[in-house]
Specification:
Elements: H1 2-8, H2 23-34, H3 46-62, H4 65-93, H5 96-102, H6 104-112, H7 118-130, H8 138-167, H9 177-188, H10 191-195, H11 198-221, H12 228-244, H13 250-262, H14 269-300
Length: 310
């Protein structure tokens, strides 16, 4: 089954996936990742894991400032490194699909470590507010978002500096092929949107919205099982969708565009902020909150009264 998938799935953006001598290793890793000795993923029912999501949102409010910043920093750094990983795979193999299939490793690592992304707290913290948890207020929610966003930015910039030095041999050589690809992505996702005007801003917002629909499903996936393999499988699936479809993730972009600027890409800081980051953040907020958080909360916690038939 795994062998058939790896050798026969067509890449709509490139040639059919061919893993060559690495195929046996990849098959073994996927088998170990998604198999469980007793085939029991210890799945939790929606009413159980949604309550855990509300609890998690409340916990973010009460977390100390130092811990919030450190966890957010590490989340931004881990996700940024996963972007380098995925783009390197795509450039070296010629298969964007293979890069997308392996990108979720970064997301899984950071959530298994208990780190926080801005996209995640956009979804979780409002649930605690809606549930009227003690001490959860709008100002404290906004402060939590701000601290997590700041930490994510710090971690993303840390890896951006490393990436620039790595792809240019400390600034002494021409930018590598992977770096050139990142520059091209940054240019197309700023200047390209700007050239489309208001329609570009709208598309950006929608891509940000649909991104956090999928990413927040990944956040939910971290609570959907009591086993590590179950959590990883539940997180992996929606993250593949977001990455392969090229949706806009605010924290990924905190890395991707600054490193492009460091390497000399042909767009400006203003274009990045106005023609990518702002609409992306707004879209991430709306998508995570409305398409995941509110849907799960209203249908599994504050449920409608059951119908009564005479």
């Amino acid at each position: 089954m795994v062998s058939f998938f790896l050798t026969n799935v067509g890449d709509m953006r490139g040639p059919i996936v061919s893993l060559g001598p690495q195929q046996d290793l990849i098959e073994t890793l996927i088998f170990l990742l998604f198999s469980n000795g007793n085939n029991n993923m210890s799945y939790l029912q929606p009413n159980e894991f949604v309550t855990k999501l509300v609890d998690a949102g409340e916990a973010k409010i009460y977390m100390g400032t130092r811990d919030t910043l450190i966890r957010a920093f590490m989340a931004g750094a881990t996700l940024a490194l996963a972007v380098i990983f995925a783009i390197t795979i795509a450039v070296q193999t010629g298969s964007f699909l293979l890069g997308a299939l392996l990108f979720p490793v970064g997301f899984c690592m950071l959530y298994l470590m208990g780190y926080d992304l801005l996209t995640g707290v956009f979804t979780l913290v409002p649930l605690a507010l809606l549930d009227k948890r003690p001490g959860v207020t709008v100002p404290r929610m906004l402060k939590c978002w701000g601290l997590v966003g700041l930490g994510n930015l710090g971690g993303a910039l840390f890896i951006a500096v490393f990436g620039y030095l790595n792809f240019s041999m400390g600034g002494t050589e021409a930018i590598s092929a992977v770096g050139e690809k990142m520059m091209a992505i940054g240019e197309s996702r700023t200047v390209g949107y700007q050239d489309a005007g208001a329609a570009g801003w709208l598309v950006l917002f929608l891509r940000g919205m649909f991104c956090n629909w999928m990413v927040s499903m990944g956040v939910v996936g971290a609570t959907i099982s009591t086993t590590v393999s179950g959590k990883i499988m539940a997180m992996w699936m929606p993250i593949i969708v977001f990455f392969y479809l090229g949706f806009e993730h605010s924290v990924v972009n905190m890395f991707l565009f600054p490193i492009g600027l460091m390497m000399g890409a042909e767009f400006t800081l203003y274009q990045y902020i106005v023609w990518n980051e702002i609409p992306t953040v707004l879209g991430n907020l709306v998508g995570g909150l409305t398409l995941v958080g509110l849907v799960l909360y209203t249908t599994h916690v504050r449920t409608q009264a059951k119908k009564v038939f005479s």
